[in-house]
């Protein structure tokens, strides 16, 4: 949408501590929109600036593991209502088609408080946009400013400046602008930049019915909800269902120097022949599967990594999601950790929060999130390492307990209670017997 004159009036207003915060979010991805939903429900005034028009979203699937699925439900986002299906198990083969592991997760998944589901990303994004801008939800609808690329962020004045020269000031800025974040430069400078991990990935979708119609492939999809992987030494193919088990999402990760693409940006058009060549030594089943690829929708994605960032926050500006910890896809936790970041911010900024506490609460946010996010990031790098001839590192559920058993909302609320007790202990108190206005510190 185009910002109206009224929606451009985002200068912080003087008043009591009960005034809602004016929150400016840069980026309308999954993390940015989740934060916007939670903050509007706490009574804050939220504007989200998005570079794109959000008119042609990229189709791919994603994991919503228990650690983030429950957070979405807190905001009345129920992925099963828009086609998410359960992840019932994992089957792993080597590149020759030899079975390495088969694990039915249906019993194991019952120990988690929320279901591990597989979701079409576009459907989740549409649900988040709808919730953010809905007139029927608690709080004022989020102002979603599309086609509004941010040129710079000023941490000294809490101001966002767009590429067209217009500027907006608020009480709090959230940088949810992805791996190429402009906000990150304002927080830590431009010395830390994303870099190629050495791997790239083809992404594509295949209707399940096409596999059902093939005698060789039919056996792969006879049970709903199973993720299937084929591992080579330096490349792998991952397939799992989405859209109520009617569409198979595939990701083909490989050395990036083998790829050829047509086009620029994060979603290069990929070459089907190039894909077939890269996986030419995989088993006949994989060859039959890849023959079904529709080249017109084949995308190629460079997998980026980044060194650990020295700070998540500066003054009243905070980073979340890929802007602070870009994830490789080997555990499917990138979106989930971004949702955790967003939920933590919302837990720390309830209605009636004092503007004087913004910087302190943002520092607490960093303390809560830094170790966990980067530990999962390290697990992901480990899971994505190349195999060798004697390597049995095939169990992708190795880190499930750490990843899945965490409740970002409850943990953040507990941390906030502790922080508030500590902050209260630092407040000077008036002792009995002292003259009014005479303060004695205790």
Strand order of the largest sheet: 6-5-14-15-16-13-19-18-17
Q: What's the CATH architecture of the largest domain?
A: 3-Layer(bba) Sandwich
Distance between the termini: 53 Å
The CATH class of the largest domain is identified as Alpha Beta
Reported for the largest beta sheet, the result is: 9 strands, mixed
Quaternary state of the chains: single chain
Residue share in helices? Answer: 25-40%
* Strand content bin: 15-25%
Rg computed from alpha carbons, rounded to a whole number of angstroms = 23 Å
CATH superfamily of the largest domain: FAD/NAD(P)-binding domain
Structural class: alpha+beta
Number of domains: 2
Write down the overall mean pLDDT: 90
Low-confidence residue ranges: 4-16, 429-442
User: What is the number of helices?
Assistant: 11
Q: Remind me, CATH topology of the largest domain?
A: FAD/NAD(P)-binding domain
Number of strands: 21
Apparent shape: globular
């Amino acid at each position: 949408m185009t910002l109206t004159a009224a929606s451009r009036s985002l200068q912080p207003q003087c008043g009591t501590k009960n005034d809602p915060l004016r929150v400016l979010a840069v980026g309308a991805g999954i993390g940015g929109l989740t934060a916007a939903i939670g903050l509007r429900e706490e009574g804050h005034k939220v504007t989200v600036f998005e570079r794109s028009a959000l008119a042609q979203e990229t189709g791919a699937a994603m994991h919503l593991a228990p650690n983030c699925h429950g957070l979405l439900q807190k905001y009345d986002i129920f992925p099963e209502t828009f086609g998410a299906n359960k992840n019932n198990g994992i089957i792993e083969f080597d590149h020759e088609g030899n079975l390495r592991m088969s694990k039915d997760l249906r019993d194991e998944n019952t120990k988690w408080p929320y279901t591990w589901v597989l979701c079409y990303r576009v459907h989740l994004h549409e649900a988040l946009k709808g919730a953010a801008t809905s007139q029927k939800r608690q709080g004022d609808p989020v102002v979603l400013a599309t086609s509004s690329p941010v040129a710079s962020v000023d941490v000294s004045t809490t101001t966002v400046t767009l590429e067209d020269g217009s500027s907006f000031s608020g009480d709090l800025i959230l940088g949810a602008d992805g791996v190429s974040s402009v906000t990150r430069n304002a927080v830590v400078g431009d010395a830390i930049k994303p870099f190629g991990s050495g791997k790239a990935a083809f992404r594509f979708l295949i209707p399940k019915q096409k596999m059902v119609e093939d005698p060789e492939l039919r056996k792969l999809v006879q049970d709903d909800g199973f993720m299937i992987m084929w591992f080579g030494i330096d490349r792998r193919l991952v397939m799992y269902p989405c859209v109520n088990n009617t569409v198979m999402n595939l990701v083909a990760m490989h050395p990036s120097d083998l790829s050829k693409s047509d086009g620029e940006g994060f979603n290069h058009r990929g070459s089907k022949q190039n894909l077939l060549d890269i996986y030419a030594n995989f088993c006949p089943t994989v060859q039959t599967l890849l023959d079904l690829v529709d080249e017109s929708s084949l995308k190629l994605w460079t997998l980026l990594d980044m060194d650990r960032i020295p700070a998540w926050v500066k003054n009243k500006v905070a980073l979340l999601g890929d802007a602070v910890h870009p994830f490789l896809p080997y555990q499917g936790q990138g979106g989930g950790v971004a949702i955790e970041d967003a939920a933590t911010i919302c837990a720390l900024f309830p209605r009636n929060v004092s503007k004087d506490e913004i910087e302190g609460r943002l520092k607490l946010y960093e303390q809560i999130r830094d170790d966990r996010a980067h530990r999962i990031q390290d697990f992901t790098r480990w899971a994505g390492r190349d195999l060798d001839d004697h390597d049995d590192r095939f169990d992708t559920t190795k880190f499930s307990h750490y990843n899945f058993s965490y409740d970002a909302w409850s943990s953040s609320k507990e941390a906030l209670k502790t922080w508030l007790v500590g902050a209260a202990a630092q407040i000077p108190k008036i002792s009995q017997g002292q003259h009014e206005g005479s303060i004695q510190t205790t």
